[in-house]
Amino acid sequence: MHELSLMCPEDRVEDVSDALDALDALSVSVEDMDAQTEAEQALFGEPGMPPPKDGWNRSRIVALFPDEAAARQAQDLLVLQDFFGGCQVLGIQEVEAQDWVRLTQSQFQPVDITPEFWIVPTWHEMPEAAKVSIRLDPGLAFGTGTHPTTRMCLRWIATQPAGSLGRTLDYGCGSGILAIGAAKFGAPAIDAVDIDPDAVVSCELNAQANAVQLNAGLPDKAQGQYQTVLANILATPLRMLAPLLCNHVQAGGHLVLAGILERQADELKQAYAPYVQLDVSDSEDGWILMTARKA
Ligand SMILES: C[S@@+](CC[C@H](N)C(=O)[O-])C[C@H]1O[C@@H](n2cnc3c(N)ncnc32)[C@H](O)[C@@H]1O
């Protein structure tokens, strides 16, 4: 395979990337041309907020083609386009053949939530220590067990007294990892909802792969009251969802919230104060888990 590298100013990145897609590039990646220099620009925003700026001043675009002729043909066509003004061809290089599947898979290892509870990609052997496990592959939906917010929710689920989870709601289910975890730890009935229809499909497929029964759907699928309500979203939507989520918790039931940074604890406590008293019950890498028991 061969890769074509280009330098583009910020306002040309979209047009050039779209053109490379249309020219049948196998993949197109965009990175900061000034990375590792004094001109490097961080584009990270607050979690849940857009980045302060859409793109870097100068981007390096790398497009992969099956052979040198295809890369050269794409280059020759691109330089003729009016939107290519201000861009520059950096070169065409051969890329060593790699076992991409194996390389990608090697980046996803089994993750231990507790010494006995593991998230294991389907291509991995089950670790000997795993007494309870979720089989899950990386997909389009969030939730592979590597993010601290997911891990804390799963740890909470795994450490509840046996048989105590009761009817459970996973609000913002993503891959369905929390709902599946709840099923593995004995929740007798589970609703898993998300605003993203792709997440709902992913959740259903993952539940099937783990031989778990649950009802997945859009948020209006959440009906009535639950002994356990789990929501790993982000602080801003969690604040707005306070009355809705608390209404879904039955008396004596648990509310478990994640996606919250340490410095956001007080604003969440205040938002939920009219309904329940939230406390910080776990933390990992600057993220906190907040839980409450409804009176
Ligand atoms: C951080 S992911 C969590 C996924 C999974 N539950 C986990 O713990 O790994 C948040 C999910 O919440 C969904 N979401 C965001 N806002 C929502 C809302 N207002 N109602 C329902 N789902 C929402 C997103 O689509 C996303 O799938």
TrEMBL record:
<feature type="binding site">
    <location>
        <position position="172"/>
    </location>
    <ligand>
        <name>S-adenosyl-L-methionine</name>
    </ligand>
</feature>
<protein>
    <recommendedName>
        <fullName>Ribosomal protein L11 methyltransferase</fullName>
        <ecNumber>2.1.1.-</ecNumber>
    </recommendedName>
</protein>
<dbReference type="GO" id="GO:0016279">
    <property type="term" value="F:protein-lysine N-methyltransferase activity"/>
</dbReference>
<dbReference type="InterPro" id="IPR029063">
    <property type="entry name" value="SAM-dependent_MTases_sf"/>
</dbReference>
<dbReference type="GO" id="GO:0005829">
    <property type="term" value="C:cytosol"/>
</dbReference>
<keyword id="KW-0949">S-adenosyl-L-methionine</keyword>
<keyword id="KW-0808">Transferase</keyword>
<feature type="binding site">
    <location>
        <position position="194"/>
    </location>
    <ligand>
        <name>S-adenosyl-L-methionine</name>
    </ligand>
</feature>
<keyword id="KW-0489">Methyltransferase</keyword>
<keyword id="KW-0687">Ribonucleoprotein</keyword>
<comment type="function">
    <text>Methylates ribosomal protein L11.</text>
</comment>
<dbReference type="InterPro" id="IPR050078">
    <property type="entry name" value="Ribosomal_L11_MeTrfase_PrmA"/>
</dbReference>
<keyword id="KW-0963">Cytoplasm</keyword>
<feature type="binding site">
    <location>
        <position position="150"/>
    </location>
    <ligand>
        <name>S-adenosyl-L-methionine</name>
    </ligand>
</feature>
<comment type="similarity">
    <text>Belongs to the methyltransferase superfamily. PrmA family.</text>
</comment>
<dbReference type="InterPro" id="IPR004498">
    <property type="entry name" value="Ribosomal_PrmA_MeTrfase"/>
</dbReference>
<keyword id="KW-0689">Ribosomal protein</keyword>
<feature type="binding site">
    <location>
        <position position="232"/>
    </location>
    <ligand>
        <name>S-adenosyl-L-methionine</name>
    </ligand>
</feature>
<dbReference type="GO" id="GO:0032259">
    <property type="term" value="P:methylation"/>
</dbReference>
<dbReference type="Pfam" id="PF06325">
    <property type="entry name" value="PrmA"/>
</dbReference>
<dbReference type="GO" id="GO:0005840">
    <property type="term" value="C:ribosome"/>
</dbReference>
